[in-house]
Amino acid sequence: MKDTWKRFKQNRFAFVGFLFIALILVVALFAKWIVPYDPYFMDSSSPLTSPNGQHWFGTDQFGRDIFSRILYGTQISLKVGLIAVGFSLFFGTIIGIVAGYFGGKIDQVLSRITDVLFAFPDILLALVIMAILGPSLTNLMIAIGIVYTPIFARIARGAVLSIRDSLYIEAARSMGVNSFQIMLRHILPNSLAPLIVQVTLSFAFAILAEAALSFLGLGVSPDTPSWGIMLSEAKDWMEISWWTAIFPGVAITLAVLSFNIMGDGLRDALDPRLKNER
Amino acid sequence: MPEVKKPLLEVKSLTTSFRTDRGLVRAVDNVSFTIDHGQILGIVGESGSGKSMTSQSILRLIGSRKSEQVNGEVLFEGQDLLKLQERQMQKIRGKEISLIAQDPMTSLNPVYTVGNQIAEVPMIHEGFSKKNAWSKAIEMIKRVGIPSAEVRAAQYPHEFSGGMRQRGVIAMALAGNPKLLIADEPTTALDVTIQSQILELILDLRNETGAGIMLITHDLGVVAEICDQVAVMYAGKIVEKASVAELFSNPKHPYTQGLLASLPKLGDKTRLTPIPGQPPNLHHLSSGCAFADRCPFVMDKCRSVQPALKKEQTEHQVACHLVNEEGGDENQ
Amino acid sequence: MKTNNQELVRVESLTKHFTLGGSFLNKKQEIIRAVENLSFTVYKGETLGIVGESGCGKSTTGRLLLRLMEATSGSVYFEGENVLEYSKEQLRAKRKDFQMIFQDPYASLNPRMTVEELISEPLRTYKVQNRKERLLKLVDAVGIPKDYLTRYPHEFSGGQRQRIGIARSLALNPKFIVADEPVAALDVSIQAQIINLMKDLQDEFDLTYLFIAHDLSVIEYISDRIAVMYLGGIVELTSSERLYEKPLHPYTQALISAIPIPDPTISRDRIKLFGDIPSPMNPPAGCKFHTRCPLAQDICKQAIPELREVEPEHFVACHLVEESLL
Question: Is the full-model pTM beyond 0.90?
Fold first, then answer.
């Protein structure tokens, strides 16, 4: 672990991504005390003001402070990311490990189900699930979670297959260790690296998906400060007030980029080929 | 007696070092030896002794990266290989000097037929036409003792058994009529009955072609079978060098003695005498003799001063304070 | 280390076939006859060596005995009970009596567990009391210093890792140990350490070994009796002294004469074997060795030779063995 962290820190690019994510986290936790204005407060006297000393990022059509809404937006993005990715990580890993370890019929059934889910385009699948469940933040998170479950299942299954036949698993079996213990103590810890990398990458996707679904009006209620909603509302005002669209757009891009480069950096840092050098 | 002939290969103070995360590692340390035409030199050592690094340094398969450094001289027929351009070196590899690697599966390309791969050598190095190169390939396959050569030449490596594959690799190595063969653990991946076939083949080929052979192995039995001279390596250095008959009848370095004593002998059930301790870690070598921690005869001097391979008049050289002091006085 | 001929393990007609292919798209099935009709006995306190070249089925045999692999047919009696008929629960309860030492100490230890976790795992699995005490006794027995308990496998050399593997196998006080090429991956100078250790532990803990190796000098040194395998069957079985002094099967003779001896003054008459080992997918009819046997006759191509006791405690599967005895 120490080596991994050392290698990760040497990758400047990924480290900047990591710092930015840390910043987002801090902002989300302390948004209440940081924001200059109440993000829900509509100042009817000053709608669509361009960025200035009082409103750094300007205001929207209801006179709400865009800077404050973007800071609050971190909460929605992280919440969706955390819960949706947590959902897919949990279920995907269980499905993948069970399928990979037992093989045979169990594997056939589970793998075919994930294959079917894989066949749909991500957003389309999320749309279908949302249409069935109805629009709400919880359902949005479940939908995104279901969409990304197959990725985790496939990664976990692949990792299990590559170590299932290794000698130390056979050694544990020869000592009478039962299947559950083998999965928990031997297989899971040794397949963690690719899963961790996928968590960071999926986090970026989840933030994007939340924005896209909210943009389409399927996510959170319209007055919630979510980056996707802000973009969606800005589309009518973009031509006369660019700042309503640009700032939420930049926020989404930066957050997604940070998670992506951190994911890449983690993958390099965890790469067993580098690790095994003697 | 006047010197008549230059040796085929003369390695002088070869030193190969690597920069790693944990510091500089000297994998080959001041190694010198010669190989004459028609001579088989065995290089024996355990993992981490630097025996394979030595051959790779000679062939310049290492040394091109920034973190690798190869110093010293490798005189092949008087020409220093370490000073050649990479392009000149390519002409020597495969033509003048060939390598037989340990794993025949990785030395053959799975998507080309064995015949094609052998034919490639005379095509590249001697400008053979495709047709002539193919008949040369078949000739080589016959020569290494593979039956029905014409059929075999058109087959892919996976259609060959392990022993056949190694014969194929040897055929490829011989196709350029090399003057020097470097065989790196050529039989380690093979079964005993196949091993004895391959060793016999190597001996026959040496007798026919007069090529010099550098045989790298961990197996003292293989050395005793086919080598003329032997160099024992430990932690990157040659610790003992002698003719095979001399080394086995009169091993002088405590490490060589230990190696021989730790082998189980057929028909002898007395308790084995292992060398105590663990193999050396090249990252943490002391300033003294690398074997000092495991040596039963260790003296104070061994822990601080590195023993040098002493050049005696005899052909038996040892790098050990104990040996060199006992017989060393008369030289001072 | 003379045995009292008390039987610990008896193997009867053990057979293992692997099936290749036969999937939806590829209907053609191929059968690998890894082990065929194997019968032998392991006596209490002895070391039975199994030696043979690649593909002879020696590793498969070891795994079948411990039921790490399911046999196609046959029986394995351990203290009189047929292990192959055990239910999953019975098997799990019995596992502590028969353990394995693996070839590759680099691959058989989970890289993410410390030495303490590795050796404690079997103890925890069987809810052994006074685990710490047992742990310390084990590491002491195999010569691993106590202060290394918190280290990970990659911090050790090959020989030390094999010591850790051995400590694990001994944790549950087993009666029977299958050692599958335990020294093949080790350097020569370390091999002897591990062989000596295994001999000492055998005396100390009353162990019975099935020692599998391809190296005849190692097998000959450590074993009381040796079974020579070729293409899934035993061709010769006798005491190690007898096998070395008077091998009767032509394959054993060739195998012994092929070992390179680290003594250049010894020159031997080599018995040359031509060709390669046939594929177990398509083994020769009759005696499986006849394609390479320098003595083969017509009968060898037709009839399968039985493993017969040709002199006391010396079993050979060869039609022509009477000629060698003369």
Answer: no
Q: Is residue B305 part of a domain?
A: no
Within an 8 Å CB–CB cutoff, is residue C260 touching chain A? no
* Domains contained in chain A, CATH given: 2-38+56-275 (1.10.3720.10)
CA distance B278 to chain C (A): 7
Chain C closest-CA separation from residue A273 CA (Å): 14
A104 touches chain C (CB under 8 A): no
**Chain C partners within 8 Å of B248 (Cβ):** 262-265
Q: Does a structural domain hold residue B128?
A: yes
Interface of A with C in 150-169 (CB under 8 A): 166-168
Instruction: State which residues form the domain around B33.
Output: 1-96+180-263
ipTM of the complex: 0.86
Residue in chain B lying closest to C274 (CA): B197
Distance CA B191, CA C53 (A): 6
- C107 interface with B at CB cutoff 8 Å: no
Q: Which of B47, B159, B188, B191 to mutate to test the interface with C (most CBs of C within 10 A)?
A: B191
Interface membership of C269 toward B (CB under 8 Å): no
Pair of tokens at residue C5? 């001929």
Q: Are residues B184 and B76 in the same domain?
A: yes
**pLDDT in single tens digits along all 326 residues of chain C:** 444 679 999 999 999 998 876 555 566 677 888 999 999 999 999 999 999 988 889 999 999 999 999 999 999 999 999 999 999 899 988 999 999 999 877 888 988 889 999 999 999 999 888 899 999 999 999 999 999 999 988 888 889 999 999 999 999 999 999 999 999 888 888 999 999 999 999 999 999 999 999 988 999 999 999 999 999 999 999 999 999 889 999 999 999 988 888 888 887 777 888 777 888 888 899 999 999 998 889 999 999 999 999 999 999 999 998 876 65
**Domain membership flag for residue B64:** yes
The closest of C205, C239, C243 to C313, measured between CA atoms, is C239
